[in-house]
Design a protein that fits this description.
- The protein is of the alpha+beta class.
- The chain has three domains: 175 residues, Phosphoenolpyruvate Carboxykinase, domain 1, CATH 3.40.449; 274 residues, Alpha-Beta Complex (Phosphoenolpyruvate Carboxykinase, domain 3), CATH 3.90.228; 78 residues, Phosphoenolpyruvate Carboxykinase, domain 2, CATH 2.170.8.10.
- 29% of the residues lie in helices and 22% in strands.
- It is built from 17 helices and 31 strands.
- The strands form six sheets. Strands 1, 4, 5, 6, 7, 8, 9, 10 and 11 form a nine-stranded mixed sheet that branches. Strands 12, 13, 14, 15, 16, 17, 25, 26 and 29 form a nine-stranded mixed sheet that branches. Strands 2-3-19-24-18 form a five-stranded mixed sheet.
- Strand 10 and strand 11 form a beta hairpin.
- The chain binds oxalic acid and manganese (II) ion.
- The site of manganese (II) ion has 2 residues, from loops.
Length: 589
């Protein structure tokens, strides 16, 4: 097949891939609807895709992965920087020379008899100065059709690269034999290269997402003076018609996608509150010409966790996935050929489970895999923001960090300044719940929700955050921390969450425009009960007091636990972070 570009850097790298992988055929992905339809039809013929009901889920497919290939594999994910020190204590490291050699031995000729698809892709809006180009060569048709939803693929990427630029991420992927023993997800930040082998799972194989947009992009961002973050982006409109864009980083299972698509309760909607979606997972933040931070969503689709998503928890997500969607490892409701998962609705009478086996509600095993996913174009989301593809990005007024904490962290608090806010992000943590195996209340530190995604030394990453705020002529967003998960002494959630979280966003907006008060506390600025709009909520004064309380003994335990984490980061933990920690320690004496 004729190549779609005459860029010599691209063509010579493709030649290297061919020599290494020895594919039988080459197909360039052009980004056309007809090519996507053709590839989906082939996946149906090969019995990998099952078409869903053409009336209720048009142009949508259900499929099951290999049972051993259902999630990201952090233990097999490597940062192959020249120096071990540059990968830091939170990443697996391998020397680039050794890893290239190992992968080359493993992958030599792995595409014999197979087709090599060449996917040019663009992360970010067409024509944006902040967008970046990558290429992924792959022998997986599943990867191609998912990448075509998650990124802008084909001619648009080639146009943005141009015919002479050498500035693109080189990505090689093969499903090999899906051998878990030889599964590798490797990043070579010194040469903008990604190689993943023996996995077909989204977070390992759709290289635009975690591999490029977070791990490689975070290294580029450090070099070039911007931030690549694991954050949603939303626009919030208040009753005065003023709009504020905010970003937020939450660890998994803390309601990030739900917040990105929040539907305010009816009385708030009537008053004029609206939340619109720019992105649900990744934000690239750059300084605009006015010195403010602007965010783009580098992705074009959502790769969302299905279980727990329902008309009650996330009606916008449910409406988004009614067409052009790929469902992986959900159950299949055989009575109407629709996807199904736990938490969506009453169980279907007859279904296939995520392994493709007959399932009925009496089965003890879950029908859908807990990490089953939908892949869907973001443009279909009813709450998509009209600026979501704006080339200049959207101006960010606030950054929200969040965690799942049964105690200690109040419902919401505000950082004193950027340094204090960075400290809040560095010390982010989530507690394991009673539902999960192991001890409850165990803290897992997940700084900025980036622990598995920082492409370099975590201490340098924290320093980069501090430095972003200390440049001249910049005006940084305010930083907040939220916790929807605080519980009473009997273990009951104190805050209703979901759409009611608009009440917390209202306080945050009020703090941005100076229209609402708060009180200083040991840990930052807190709302008082009178500062929150609680009308219509059935929540007692006692419960609100508990939600907003800062208990010195709990914070003494917290700072001791933070210190343990800081020791794991070592000498590179910024002095500014230690200073913030010391201030809090002193205040607690
Ligand atoms: C994740 C994801 O693992 O978004 O964070 O898939
Ligand atoms: Mn994510």
């Amino acid at each position: 097949m004729a190549s779609l570009t005459n860029n010599s850097h691209v063509l010579s790298w493709i030649e290297e891939c061919k020599t290494e992988l020895l594919p039988e055929r080459i197909v360039w992905i052009d980004g056309s609807k007809s090519q996507q339809e053709q590839l989906c039809a082939e996946l149906v013929n090969e019995k990998f895709f099952t078409p869903l009901n053409s009336i209720t889920f048009p142009n949508s497919y259900w499929c099951c992965s290999d049972a051993s290939d259902v999630a990201r594999v952090e233990e097999r994910t490597y940062i192959c920087s020249k120096l071990k020190e540059d990968a830091g204590p939170t990443n697996n490291w391998a020397s680039p020379d050794e890893m290239y050699k190992k992968l080359s031995d493993l992958m030599k000729g792995c595409m014999k008899g197979r087709t090599m698809y060449i996917i040019p892709y663009l992360m970010g809006p067409d024509g944006s100065p902040y967008s970046k180009v990558g290429f992924e060569v792959t022998d997986s048709k599943y990867v191609v059709v998912n990448m075509a939803i998650m990124a802008r693929v084909g001619n648009v990427a080639l146009k943005n690269l141009g015919s002479t630029s050498n500035d693109f991420v080189r990505g090689m992927h093969s499903v090999g034999q899906l051998d878990p023993q030889n599964r590798f997800i490797c990043h070579f930040p010194d040469d903008n290269t990604i190689i993943s082998f023996n996995s077909n799972y989204g977070g390992n194989a759709l290289q635009g997402k975690k591999c490029f947009a977070l791990r490689i992009a975070s290294t580029l961002a450090r070099r070039e003076g911007w931030l690549a973050e694991h954050m949603f982006i939303v626009g919030i409109t208040n009753p005065k018609g003023e709009k504020y864009y905010v970003c937020g980083a939450f660890p998994s299972a803390c309601g990030k996608t739900n917040l990105a698509m929040l539907v305010p309760p009816p009385e708030f909607q009537k008053a004029g509150w609206k939340v619109e979606t720019v992105g649900d997972d990744i934000a690239w933040l750059n300084f605009g010409p006015d010195g403010k931070l602007y965010a783009i969503n580098p992705e074009a689709g959502f790769f969302g966790v299905a279980p727990g998503t329902s008309a009650a928890t996330n009606p916008n997500a449910m409406a988004t996935i009614r067409k052009n969607t790929i469902f992986t490892n959900t159950a299949l409701d055989l009575t109407c050929m629709a996807p199904w998962w736990e938490g969506m609705s009453d169980p279907p009478e007859r279904a296939f489970d995520w392994k493709g086996r007959e399932w009925n509600p009496k089965n003890k095993e879950k029908a859908a895999h807990p990490n089953s996913r939908f892949t869907v174009p973001a443009s279909q989301c009813p709450s998509i923001d009209k600026e979501w593809e704006s080339a200049g990005g959207v101006p960010i007024s606030a950054i929200i960090f969040g965690g799942r904490r049964a105690k200690t962290a109040p419902l919401v608090y505000e950082a004193r300044d950027w340094k204090h806010g960075t400290y809040m992000g560095v010390t982010m943590a989530s507690e394991t719940t009673a539902a999960a195996a192991g001890k409850t209340g165990q803290l897992r530190r997940d700084p900025m929700a980036m622990l598995p995604f920082i492409g370099y030394h975590a201490g340098d990453y924290f320093q980069h955050w501090i430095e972003m705020g200390s440049r001249a002529n910049v005006s940084m967003p305010k930083i907040f921390h939220v916790n929807w998960f605080r519980t009473s002494a009997t273990g009951k959630f104190l805050w209703p969450g979901f759409g009611e979280n608009i009440r917390v966003l209202e306080w945050i907006i009020g703090r941005i425009n100076g229209s609402v008060g708060g009180v200083n506390s040991l840990i930052g600025m807190l709302p008082e009960m009178k500062d929150l709009d609680l009308t219509g909520l059935t929540i007692s004064e006692e419960e609100i007091k508990e939600l907003l309380s800062v208990k010195p003994q709990e914070w003494r335990e917290e700072i001791a636990s933070q210190e343990k984490f800081f020791r794991t980061i070592g000498k590179k933990l910024p002095k500014e972070i230690w200073d913030e920690h010391a201030k809090l320690t002193d205040a607690l004496r």
